[in-house]
Design brief:
The complex is a heterodimer.
Chain A lengths: L1 H11 L2 H10 L7 H13 L1 H23 L12 H18 L17
Helix pairs in contact in A: 1-3, 2-3, 2-4
Chain B lengths: L7 H4 L20 H17 L2 H17 L10 H19 L32 H6 L19 H16 L3 H11 L5 H8 L3 H24 L12
Helix pairs in contact in B: 2-3, 2-4, 3-4, 6-9, 7-9
The chains are: A mainly alpha, B mainly alpha.
Chain lengths: ~120, ~240
């Protein structure tokens, strides 16, 4: 019975379900039956072969960018001058608050910690 | 060069091991905005869509870095260290508001344009708006995907990335958050379900819909073979 249903799934896979499987296999492994049905469908369907290549290309483009990291390209949009000034101000304020009082820093232990 | 920062769970976790002490410092923190601000901003902007939000995340990153300053020991570059903190902030942003659209730039409001989680089937006579847009009632493509030119030149690849960025910006919010965390932050699906509070099935649907929409958007904006080069424009 299972074999019959499997064969039916292989023979009747439509583009809508094939595309969903192609997308899914980018995220998780497919079952043997799903892979077989997909391969059979792709042999016969040029549209789904294109969809397959195109979603892979989208992934490759995004992953390549991740490998390269954000570019220091002066032509690209950056922080606005207002945001930059605001951030510098916030950093300075945080530095002023976080500044340990003289004589209490980690390099200058208080008397009670001395032998 | 692999500039991908460490996983967000390690980024600014106080329990995370410190980097080896090589005597290298992080420099003057007030110079960080000039040295790293634009790069961090671009990283955040691509992922969260909205300028103000990206700028806030950059500010939060610098302030968190300032607090964790003592834990930086120079084993990584300052940029990589800051990126790892920013990455944590971005995931946190999506975790806090998983179904709220990341920004105006990221498409239509949640629930609009079929970004809900109704299954892809047509059960009950209801046609899922995204699936119904691409496939007819018998499950065949309404409009077959066109062939794309191979990215044989750097210019082509750059154009592709630029259009892709524009298309990402137009994804409906809940699809964008799932897709961005999966493809840009490279979270594995199990981790992603936890961050967004989704079942595996719902995550699958969102990722698939996002890919269908992005592919169509790229084709519409010049990457189909029939389209001429001059027709390319950023969405």
């Amino acid at each position: 019975m299972n074999g019959f249903h499997g064969l039916l799934q292989i023979l009747t896979l439509r583009c809508e379900a094939a595309a969903a499987l192609l997308s899914r296999q980018l995220d998780e492994p497919l079952s043997h039956l799903e892979r077989t049905a997909l391969v059979c469908h792709l042999v016969a369907c040029r549209s789904c072969r294109r969809f397959h290549r195109q979603v892979q290309r989208i992934r490759q483009a995004l992953r390549l960018r991740n490998r390269l990291g954000p570019a220091d390209n002066a032509d690209d949009e950056g922080l606005s001058p207002e945001a930059r000034a605001r951030i510098v101000r916030a950093i300075r304020e945080a530095q002023a608050i976080g500044e340990p009082p003289a004589g209490t820093g980690p390099d200058t232990p208080r008397d009670e910690t001395l032998p | 060069m692999d500039a991908r920062p460490p996983t967000p769970t390690q980024a600014d976790d106080p329990q995370a091991p410190t980097l080896p002490d090589t005597g290298t410092g992080t420099g003057d923190a007030s110079a960080w905005p000039d040295e790293h601000g634009d790069a961090l901003y671009r990283y955040a902007r691509l992922r969260v869509g909205r300028r103000e939000l990206a700028e806030d995340l950059v500010q939060e990153t610098f302030l968190a870095a300032l607090q964790a300053h003592g834990r930086f020991r120079g084993g990584a570059t300052v940029r990589t260290w800051l990126l790892s903190i920013l990455r944590h902030k971005i995931v946190d942003h999506f975790r806090r508001a998983p179904t709220v659209m990341p920004g105006q730039g990221h498409g239509s409001p949640a629930g609009h344009d079929g970004d809900g989680d109704a299954p892809n089937s047509r059960a009950g006579g209801q046609v899922d708006p995204i699936s119904g847009r691409f496939f007819d009632a018998s499950g065949h493509w309404r409009k077959a995907p066109a062939a794309w030119k191979a990215p044989d030149r750097e210019l082509e690849a750059r154009e592709f990335r630029e259009v892709l960025d524009g298309c990402l910006d137009h994804l409906p919010g809940s699809l964008a958050s799932a897709f961005i965390l999966r493809e840009l932050e490279e979270l594995d699906p199990g981790e992603l379900c936890g961050v967004l509070g989704l079942s595996a099935g719902n995550l699958r649907i969102r990722l698939h819909r996002a890919r269908l929409l992005l592919r169509e958007c790229l084709e519409r904006h010049g990457f189909g073979a029939e389209s001429s080069r001059s027709s390319r424009r950023t969405p």
